[in-house]
Sequence to fold (184 residues):
Amino acid sequence: MRLFVAAELPQGMVEALSETLAELRECVHGRAVGTDQFHVTLAFLGEVPATRVDEVAAIVDAACAGRRPISATLGPLGSFGRDTSATLWEGLAGPQVGALAELADDLRGRLRDAGLPTDPKGFLAHVTLMRRADLPRAAREHGGLPMPTVAHGVIDTVTLFRSELCRDRAPVYTPLHEARLAEP
Ligand code: ATP
Ligand code: MG
Fold:
């Protein structure tokens, strides 16, 4: 099954992202992410045999153990890919975002050590808001992108998700296991 591990966001950040996404939808043509699907990918595994899910869950627990909740602020918008079919995202910023990168690196290292697949690209703290976004058209018709809503929050939940891709529809993410970041 297709697996990835992601940090979930506190309600206040989800609300701010929903607001920003609603404004983006007014001026950018593209496929919006469902407001119940916002997440920060820490590690993308891709296809893993179902028999190894428990092992992946234990690795998520081990990587999260002893780590404190991480505070973050929603940052500026950014994009990946071709401008006419871009992945549009909002970054996370703040002095503790390094702790999120550390967690992602630790997690990926443990997955690799166990012979599990994980994406080789470096971690970038971001929340995808829209895919196949036409940025030049937004610039032409609306003079650019809106300013994102400011929000601050504390991340304390890391979830192992199964992702089922659906043709012409949003993917279905199913939480399989949850780990908590806790104050010692
Ligand atoms: P869709 O592929 O239909 O646009 P999606 O990207 O949300 O939907 P997945 O492809 O299963 O669904 O990806 C789940 C998460 O993992 C997303 O945050 C995605 O950005 C990330 N991801 C997917 N593929 C990779 C990859 N090759 N490397 C790094 N991260 C990835
Ligand atoms: Mg994808």
About this structure: The radius of gyration is 17 Å. The chain has one domain: 2-180. The longest strand covers residues 169-180. Residues 25 and 60 are 34 Å apart (CA to CA).
